[in-house]
Amino acid sequence: MELKDTIEMMNSGDYRDRFKAEYYQLEIRTNNLWKMLNEWESGKLHFVPTCSKKTLYDQLKLMIDYMTVLADRADQEGIEL
Fold first, then answer.
1. Considering 6, 37, 61, 73, which has the largest number of Cβ atoms within 10 A of its Cβ?
2. Tens-place pLDDT, residues 39-73
3. How many CB atoms are located within 10 Å of the residue 37 CB?
4. Which residues 6+ apart lie within 8 Å of 33 measured at CB?
5. For residues 81 and 73, what is the distance between their CA atoms, to the nearest angstrom?
């Protein structure tokens, strides 16, 4: 799934669809950041980020924490991700 695949869900009148879209978008962005950091660590990144690795790892941790909260909420509300 790509971000563009979540547009219809984001525009839905059903909060459950919008919730799923939010989760999927966060998952996509988290995976992309993880891949970028792995490429940076292995010397395969094709650009030099202007912020530090620590900042990006901090961001990644918070994104993962947020995904965990959303997954817990989905479970409580009976929303299948």
1. 6
2. 999 999 999 999 999 999 999 999 999 999 999 99
3. 17
4. 56, 59, 60, 63
5. 11
